[in-house]
Amino acid sequence: MRFNEVLKDVSTYEAGKPIELVVREYGIDSKDVIKLASNENPYGTSPKVIAKIQELAKNMCLYPDDSMYELKDALAKKYNLESSNIIIGSGSDQILEFCIHAKCKKDSKILMAKTTFAMYEIYGKHVGAEIIKTNSEQHNLEEFSELYKKHGADIIFLCIPNNPLGECLDKNDVYEFLKTIDKNTLVVVDGAYQEYAAFKDEKKRICPKDLIDTFPNAIYLGTFSKAYSLGGMRVGYGFAQNEIIQNLYKIRAPFNITTLSLAAAIEALKDEEFVNDCISKNFEEMKRYEEYVTKKGFEYIPSYTNFITIKFGDKYVSKEVAQKLLERGMIVRDLTSYKQNAIRVTIGKPEQNTKLFQLLDEVLQNL
Amino acid sequence: MRFNEVLKDVSTYEAGKPIELVVREYGIDSKDVIKLASNENPYGTSPKVIAKIQELAKNMCLYPDDSMYELKDALAKKYNLESSNIIIGSGSDQILEFCIHAKCKKDSKILMAKTTFAMYEIYGKHVGAEIIKTNSEQHNLEEFSELYKKHGADIIFLCIPNNPLGECLDKNDVYEFLKTIDKNTLVVVDGAYQEYAAFKDEKKRICPKDLIDTFPNAIYLGTFSKAYSLGGMRVGYGFAQNEIIQNLYKIRAPFNITTLSLAAAIEALKDEEFVNDCISKNFEEMKRYEEYVTKKGFEYIPSYTNFITIKFGDKYVSKEVAQKLLERGMIVRDLTSYKQNAIRVTIGKPEQNTKLFQLLDEVLQNL
């Protein structure tokens, strides 16, 4: 059967390995498997959110309120926006997919950093767009500017802070860059890990309302998957001027998040104390990683997220390290598919991190 | 800002009104609102599934197993297929979206019945495809054949049984039609309500394995939203030859269903007794609708689903009837947007149906 030609050039996203797979393939008991691979919140979901979902589980037969009135209202209040500035997605992933489908077609141009969230490129290829990347691994706005002057772009992706590397642009630099961008270019500011970055360094904080008021061609994306501990529930949001939101809405399918996801997100917004507590612990534990990696003589990228990227240089092969850890029930993310000889490790709970250090010692001794 | 031109012609799907909206707009207590508008299973979700989700609610922070190994394995066993014949979607809606994006681009042709599931056309317009519809409201395969000979088609949609009208093609007629279709045309057999149709009349039963073995250009879509009582959890599936599945997989985003949706679907498949019991009650109650409508002198379309379409002819205006019912806390689906002077009513529980008859009597007397 014939399919669209653009699909020939499309690869599928390599998701982090689930605990179930390690159980199946290596026969390790699920309670002995530690997953530090998908930047899930290791402290679990807020007990208040869990209780709410247990109470509402009986509503699984009912479609969600597709207007998402209550969630949009809560987000609008928190971020000082109008509901008409908001669209909800099945993870913020889905909203970046909407952006690409709304703006791009074959031979449209999409500008991004060399090593950034893989879905930008994958979604771009779905519509046959041309992907333009900087030479630098990390976000380098001078290179972005040069490439933009040379090629133009229908969409620019800025991942602030950047997944999978962890670095983060300063807000002021982002603003200076945005001033130079044509109003017909949609700039996607992916803030999936913004809560972490803003906690660590106020200079990194992007205020969504100020961003979209100052730059009407920008859209801010946020998620409940990381700081809000709802990775499994697939809820993200986009904030932009209503003209953009209206066009994205044309692409959104009805009922694009589940009834329980909607309820969980609404409840999670009520428990900011839990969120802040998790973020605080995250950076306490990250110090241990920085010390460990330095002691071992490897390099790491200073991180503004809930993960850290450890580079093995010419000492070890990251793919082998990740595989040996996997066989011991420790799942981390090998970055070979991102052309990095590095692993990305989610900052876990204290005892999980201690275990990671032990297993990494053991694995490296035997490689 | 400029957006893709095809979006100018895109309208958004009008979802059934949620209970929350009636509570907000008419100040009616949520426990007094009855929703017979979205073909949700009125008997709720299986208690076994509810218990499982309450147990697993703590896993909301974890991404799902993106291979969906266990769910695909269970579906493969039930339908005598291989896992490689299966793709899971956020509702079967999402899989029909995948089909359109895999096969169609601007000016591709999509053939469908005049009055059928609205998303076929909406997704088609997202890619700028040409929508070709039969003159007959209900599925008429002779007209499909004539139009196919005249125009060809990249995709043909057959909704068996048909939403929102309720009629259902015979399996043998579908097979005769499929024999005449070119192998490069993808035929989507949307079986969202097949469990109901097959229960009522064996001649309507489509066996997915036999369908895709006989016609390698066909894909069968099923859902957990209707008979399996998980409308709010957004889980559907597509069965096809692996060549088709592989291409749809290129378009699927990772983690396209939630962790709890995956668990709920797996558990729901284990409780077929609940499903059969609900379907049996559905057709018992449908008899009451047929008697009521006949007594009132209206027409209905004999239905192979969990809803019934009631036509008001020149006696009443369906939009007014639906609105007056809404103000009394009874939500039904007005079909004006489908160009029908009719309402579609989900077959509810006995007491809900009794209430609908009472309120409809009251409303019609005052119109």
Provide structural commentary.
Chain A has 14 helices and 13 strands. The first copy, chain A, is α/β, with parallel strands linked by helices. The first copy, chain A, folds into two domains: 5-45 and 276-366, Aspartate Aminotransferase, domain 1, CATH 3.90.1150.10; 47-272, Type I PLP-dependent aspartate aminotransferase-like (Major domain) (Aspartate Aminotransferase, domain 2, 3-Layer(aba) Sandwich), CATH 3.40.640.10. In chain A, the strands form three sheets. A seven-stranded mixed sheet of chain A has the order 2-8-7-6-5-3-4, with helices on both faces. The first copy, chain A, starts with 18 loop residues before the first helix and ends with a helix. The interface between A and B is large, with 81 and 81 residues. Chains A, B: Its EC number is 2.6.1.9. Chains A, B: One of its GO terms (molecular function) is histidinol-phosphate transaminase activity. Chains A, B: Pathway: Amino-acid biosynthesis; L-histidine biosynthesis; L-histidine from 5-phospho-alpha-D-ribose 1-diphosphate: step 7/9.
Beta fraction of the residues of chain A?
A: 5-15%
What's the CATH first level of the largest domain in chain A?
Answer: Alpha Beta
Q: And the CATH topology of the largest domain in chain A?
A: Aspartate Aminotransferase, domain 2
- Most extensive interface between two protein chains, with residue counts: A-B, 81 and 81 residues
Q: Could you state the order of secondary-structure elements of chain A as H and E?
A: HEHHEHEHEHEHEHHEEHHHEEHEEEH
Largest sheet of chain A: 7 strands, mixed
Q: What quaternary form is this?
A: homodimer
Mean pLDDT of chain A: 95
Return the CATH architecture of the largest domain in chain A: 3-Layer(aba) Sandwich
pLDDT < 50 stretches of chain A: none
How far the N terminus sits from the C terminus of chain A, by CA atoms, comes to: 47 Å
Count of individual beta strands of chain A:
13
The residue fraction in helices of chain A comes out at: 40-55%
Helix and strand composition category of chain A: alpha/beta
What is the helix tally of chain A? 14
* 3D shape of chain A: globular
**CATH H-level superfamily of the largest domain in chain A:** Type I PLP-dependent aspartate aminotransferase-like (Major domain)
Pfam families (chains A, B): Aminotran_1_2
Pathway (chains A, B): Amino-acid biosynthesis; L-histidine biosynthesis; L-histidine from 5-phospho-alpha-D-ribose 1-diphosphate: step 7/9
Subunit structure (chains A, B): Homodimer.
Catalytic activity (chains A, B): L-histidinol phosphate + 2-oxoglutarate = 3-(imidazol-4-yl)-2-oxopropyl phosphate + L-glutamate
